[in-house]
Design a protein that fits this description.
This protein is α/β, with parallel strands linked by helices. It has 17 helices and 9 strands. Strands 1-4-5-6-7-8-9 form a 7-stranded parallel beta sheet.
Amino acid sequence: MSTPNLKVLDVLDGKTVTPPPIWLMRQAGRYLPEYRETRKKAGSFLDLCYSPEYATEVTLQPIRRYGFDAAILFSDILVIPDALHRNVTFTEGHGPQMDPIDPDGILALSAEGVLDHLKPVMETVSRLRAELPSETTLLGFCGAPWTVATYMIAGHGTPDQAPARLFAYRHPEVFARLLDFLADVSADYLVAQIDAGADAVQIFDSWAGVLGEAEFEAFAARPVRRIIDSVKSRRPQAKVIAFAKGAGILLKNYRQDTRADAIGLDWSVPLSFAVELQKDGPVQGNLDPMRVVAGGAALKEGIDAILQALGHGPLIFNLGHGITPQADPEHVTELVAQVRGFG
């Protein structure tokens, strides 16, 4: 059987593809009326994540509508603490909440049963690989240890993740243990996704931007490197995208420090800096999601600037963070058409 030409994997191999492949973070989401309908049927948000039927459906919706070059598994980074019995809930208007963890709780953590708890996610991956067009890359993902740890320690999201930063300074050894534990569990989870049919995976470090230089190296880069080393030691063919939102100049050594195949860029990364980062390998990004809300000239100019700066090297076109519920689906149609018309 011949291997389908997966453009995203070509870019992850370091090739320049023209026009660049495109997918969008949170492309399966509340901006789509069909997602909102499925979400109503599913019950709670976690019910949606753990239902292979519904999670498969919402993952496929943006592929049917836009023909993106990649589908990303519909799930959430907090299924890991949920599998660790931290009583995760998602409340409308309040975001995720869970039992805050203390040093004793960290020392008592056990990975036993985690992958069993996450079996429905692997079933979703298998269904997606069977149902997706052969030319569509299937991406799995997990949260980075630092970002997942911030929620576990505070019990909810905070504006600057001060509770986790303070915990790390007060309990450095226990905190390092938590990051290593999360890295090892996450690596097992990504390997399971790859075995179920994911073509590549992404690691989301949504809160990397609150860290200073030394902390970024210790809390963000090192644990992500631990995940990638573990995954690649077992699945050498695995391709990994690492996205450290808000890391700015600290992205300079992030690829080398983590051994990621590609690095995701948020919209605040200057294109002049992105060009320098691209000289070392593939980049992914980095349109401001607000341009998709605005449409018109703001959308066209933003897309054009990225294509002109990065489109002649290895690029996966994406947003600089997730698409927002306010985005007009027609603006996404225009975005895809403009990217596909490049070259």
